[in-house]
């Protein structure tokens, strides 16, 4: 095979089932994916996919190629990580993935880090999806989990507590302190299944009889905006809520997540100087932030 890179395009189509999804994953055009798939089929002298109206499905030849292609992918990524891990510079790009749930205030820490290490360029990916460090989609992950996978190394920052918050404007609607059952609730409902989502609904079920849910949103920033606008009450971490002077805690009942906040990297990158530097800096800053809540 003259062009091993064509295997990336074969794998992307095989996993996603459509050319358009593969093009989006690889950040190339639809035509590029088609051309690369045709090239690898020409080199191998066989078709690899069944072209159906619903998408692309591996045929027998395509299925036979899959284990070898995935092994080549694993070895290529391992090799890249080994060389990347040998880099000994406090400069260059550092890709960080963080949860799109705003339970901790990360950006003041990012600002301090950039001030101290101006030659490191941060690339931040905020998403409710779990970015795969094994495939080099990020260098460092800040995520909520009970326990990271065995391929990841890092530090547990601690647990985050949350409470029920509303705006002063909403509180002034009531002549008395409202019970949780009297409140209008705003819930975060991400498009993907999240462990944190189950904790949220479990807390609400245990503390509020027949909660009146007035709004659901897939964006946590929109949820905060809705709470601040006086639409209703929502669960927010104490770390985030205290940054808004117009919010107050309407109940002293705290929600403590069973998940812990971790900062992790792939074990092959643990010796990379800028990764180590960033992880130590964020660990210290985040622990101090949680201790103040």
Corresponding CATH superfamily of the largest domain: Periplasmic binding protein-like II
Biggest sheet strand order reads: 4-3-5-13-6
How many separate helices? Answer: 10
Could you please say which CATH topology of the largest domain applies here?
D-Maltodextrin-Binding Protein, domain 2
Rg measurement, Å: 24 Å
How would you state the average pLDDT, rounded? 83
Note the overall shape. Answer: globular
What is the CATH class designation of the largest domain?
Answer: Alpha Beta
Largest sheet: 5 strands, mixed
Q: Structural class from helices and strands?
A: alpha/beta
Question: What does this molecule look like?
Answer:
The strands form four sheets. Strands 4-3-5-13-6 form a five-stranded mixed beta sheet, with helices on one face. The protein folds into three domains: 6-85, Arc Repressor Mutant, subunit A, CATH 1.10.10.10; 92-159 and 259-291, Periplasmic binding protein-like II (D-Maltodextrin-Binding Protein, domain 2); 161-256, 3-Layer(aba) Sandwich (D-Maltodextrin-Binding Protein, domain 2), CATH 3.40.190. Strand 1 (49-52) and strand 2 form a beta hairpin. Helices cover 41% and strands 24% of the residues. Helix 1 (6-16) crosses helix 4. It is an alpha/beta fold.
Question: What is shown here, in short?
Answer:
The protein is of the alpha/beta class. It has helices at residues 6-16, 19-26, 30-44, 60-85, 107-116, 168-171, 195-207, 220-228, 238-241, 273-291, and strands at residues 49-52, 55-58, 92-99, 120-127, 140-145, 152-158, 161-167, 184-188, 212-217, 234-237, 247-249, 255-256, 260-266. It has three domains: 6-85, Winged helix-like DNA-binding domain superfamily/Winged helix DNA-binding domain (Arc Repressor Mutant, subunit A), CATH 1.10.10.10; 92-159 and 259-291, Periplasmic binding protein-like II (D-Maltodextrin-Binding Protein, domain 2, 3-Layer(aba) Sandwich), CATH 3.40.190.10; 161-256, 3-Layer(aba) Sandwich (D-Maltodextrin-Binding Protein, domain 2).
